Amino acid sequence: MSQKANSEKKIVGIIGLGLIGGSMAIDLKRRGFASRVLGVESDPVHASAAKEIGLVDEIVSYEDCISLSDIVVVAVPVGAAVKMLPDILDRFQAQGTQDKIVIDTCSTKAHIVRSVHYHPMRPAYVATHPMAGTEYSGPWAAMPGLFDGRACIFANSEESDPKALATIEGLYDTLNMRPAYMNADNHDVHTAYVSHISHVTSFALALTVLDKEKDEKHIFDLASGGFSSTVRLAKSSADMWVPILVQNRENVLHVIETYIEKMEAFRKAIEEFDEEGIRDLIEQANRIKKIIR
To answer: Model pTM?
Structure first.
C-alpha cells in the first residue's frame, strides 16, 4: 500500500484501550503517524493502566475525544460500536467540520455499515477490520507490531470520502498492514469461516474438556501443545464475542451446520472402524496446507 495520507501528523483519539486500540496507539505514535494519542476508556482501572504504561498521551472524556481528534478510532465491541458511530457522526455534523474522520475496528461489518448508510456525515466514516489479535484483552494485552504483515479489510469503501479513505489507508500503511476491499456482507461471510467458527469450536472444546475434567482430574496434566493451541481462543472475552456472534448470526449458523456435518462424517467413520474413510477425511483436510503454511 502506498503512503496516501497527508504527511501532517494527526491527533488520534482511540475509544477503547484494549488489545486492538492499545496496540494501535503504540505504533501510530511510535512510527510517527500521530502527533498525540488521546484515549477514552470506561473502565477506570483500565484507563489508569493505559496512562500508566504509556499507551496514550492523555485520558480524555468521550466528548473531548471527538472534539479534539482528527481521527476517532472506535475500538470497542461491535454491540457498543453500532450505537456509538451514529452519535459520533452527529457530533461531527454539529461541529460543522468537514475534515474529521471516524473508523471502527469491528469484526462484523454489515450491521454497523447499515446503521449510518443514510447519515449526512457518512463520507467521514471509513469501515475497517484489522485482521489481527490474540486471545487476551485489556490494556495489558496491547503490544507493538501486532498488525505487522496482517490484512486489513476496508468495507464499502466507495461510500467514504476519497480523502478520508486515503488518510486511513495511510494509517494502516503505518501499521504495516495489507489492504483488502470488499462489501460488508461478503466480509461477514468470510469472517464467519476464517475467524468466528474457530472461536465457537474452541469454546465448545473447552466446555467439553471442562465437563470431562470433573471426573478425570489429571486431564490437564496430560494436555499437550496441540490441545493448548486448539483451545487457546476459548480464553477470548465474552464481552467481545457475544455481539459478534449475534450480529453475524445467519452466517455463523450456516458454518456451524457445515461443521457439524463434517464432525458427523468423522463420527460415522470412527464408529464403523472405517480406516479408509478416516484416512480420506484427514487427507481432504490436509489440503488446507496449500492455503495456510
So the answer is: 0.86
CA separation (Å) from 242 to 70, 77, 137, 196, 277?
Answer: 31, 9, 15, 11, 36
What pLDDT does residue 1 have? 40
Instruction: Enumerate long-range contacts of 252-259, CB under 8 Å, 24 or more apart.
Output: 252/192, 252/196, 252/197, 252/200, 254/192, 255/192, 255/193, 255/196, 255/197, 256/197, 256/200, 259/197, 259/201
Specify the pLDDT at position 225: 65
Please give the helix or strand (H or E) that residue 184 lies within, else none: helix 184-191
Give the model's pLDDT for residue 222: 66
Please give the DSSP secondary-structure letter assigned to residue 124: G
- The H or E element spanning position 281 is helix 275-286
Pick from 58, 60, 65: nearest CA to 84: 65
- Tell me what pLDDT residue 120 has: 97
Closest CA to 157 of 117, 130, 127, 189: 127
Residue recorded with cell 486500540: 21
Residues of the chain with pLDDT > 90, as a percent, come to: 80
pLDDT at position 3 over 70: no
Tell me if residue 125 falls in helix, strand or coil: strand
Helices marked H in 4-105 — which ranges?
A: 19-30, 44-52, 62-68, 78-95
Phi, psi values for residue 125, rounded to 5°: -105, 130
SS3 34: strand
Amino acid (1-letter code) at residue 203: F
Domains of the chain: 10-182 (3.40.50.720), 187-290 (1.10.3660.10)
Which residue type, as a one-letter code, is found at position 168? Answer: I
